[in-house]
């Protein structure tokens, strides 16, 4: 089983890289599995790779579900990625 974290694209970079953020945590991700991406889009990230696109409402729903299931709090630093 894998868990993908919904993240918002903050900055697009060359070579299929992007800076993504969730709950104040920012990481550089690889986007080659989903192609070109735009700032302010939401993606699902697993193991540092964007594996799918989601809309803002679905991203919020997923974060809420993660909080309910695992105690993940939106104001906390979040899980390590």
Task: Record keyword descriptors for this entry.
1 helix, 5 strands, 81 residues, SH3 type barrels, alpha+beta, single chain, 5-stranded antiparallel sheet
Query: Mind describing the biggest β-sheet?
Result: 5 strands, antiparallel
**CATH architecture identity:** Roll
Number of domains: 1
Question: Given this structure, which CATH class is correct?
Answer: Mainly Beta
If you average the pLDDT, what whole number results? 89
User: Uncertain segments of ≥5 residues (pLDDT<50)?
Assistant: none
Q: How many distinct helices?
A: 1
Radius of gyration (CA) equals 12 Å
What sort of overall outline do the alpha carbons produce when their principal axes are compared? globular
Question: In what range is the share of β-strand residues?
Answer: 35-45%
CATH topology: SH3 type barrels
> Span from first to last CA?
16 Å
In words, what does this structure look like?
The protein contains one helix and five strands. With 81 residues, the protein is an alpha+beta fold. It has a five-stranded antiparallel sheet with strand order 3-2-1-4-5, with helices on one face. Strand 4 and strand 5 form a beta hairpin. The radius of gyration is 12 Å and the shape is globular. The mean pLDDT is 89.
Please write out the topology.
Elements (H helix, E strand, L loop, with lengths): L4 E9 L3 E6 L2 E6 L11 E5 L2 E6 L1 H15 L11
Antiparallel strand pairs: 1-2, 1-4, 2-3, 4-5
């Amino acid at each position: 089983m894998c868990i993908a974290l919904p993240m918002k694209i903050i900055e697009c970079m060359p070579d299929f890289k992007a800076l993504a953020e969730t709950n104040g945590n920012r990481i550089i991700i690889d986007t080659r599995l989903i192609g070109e991406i735009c700032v302010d889009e939401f993606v699902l990230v697993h193991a540092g790779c964007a594996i799918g696109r989601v809309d803002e409402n679905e991203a919020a729903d997923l974060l809420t579900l993660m909080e309910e299931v695992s105690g993940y709090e939106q104001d906390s630093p979040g899980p390590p990625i």
